[in-house]
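Friendly challenge for the regulars: who can give me the structure tokens for this chain first? No prize, just bragging rights.
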Amino acid sequence: MLIINTGGTFNKRYNPLKGELEVPKDSIALESILKYFYNLKYKIKNIIHKDSLDILDIDRKEIVDLIKNSPSEKILIIHGTDTMDKTAEFLEKYVSDKTILLTGAMVPFSIDSVEANANLSMSLGYLLHCTKKGVFIAMHGLVDDHKNIYKNRKIGVFQTKQGM
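First reply, four minutes later:
Bragging rights claimed.
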């Protein structure tokens, strides 16, 4: 399994010198959770290192290229929640022969690890047993085709579009 870590709130840490949350160029948050998945074989690629509001189509193209050049059939992408849907749409246009799942967190792992841990664990469980190809989102207890899940900005949670 290939895990692509693009940054986002999931990874953010507080920089006391600047007084702000920053997206680091490492995978400390991700590795802190993955160390408990004793039987999982994976490779982590850290790329982009941005808040998702700053991700551009050129960055999305980098994700596509990495996926297409990977022998992995199953891809997990750690991504910021604000533009996760845009990246999912972009990926669907260019990759059709793999199972791709995007997840993230709205609260940084460094502040409260529960959401990041829950979303990542749910994502891994789904990916390990999923036999369908396509682009999926896993957030807040939901896993579905990316077209069926959205971020309800009014209440700050991901929901299915059926509930709209």
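Residues 88 and 150 are 11 Å apart (CA to CA). The domain at 2-163 is CATH 3.40.50.1170 (Rossmann fold). Your move, everyone else.
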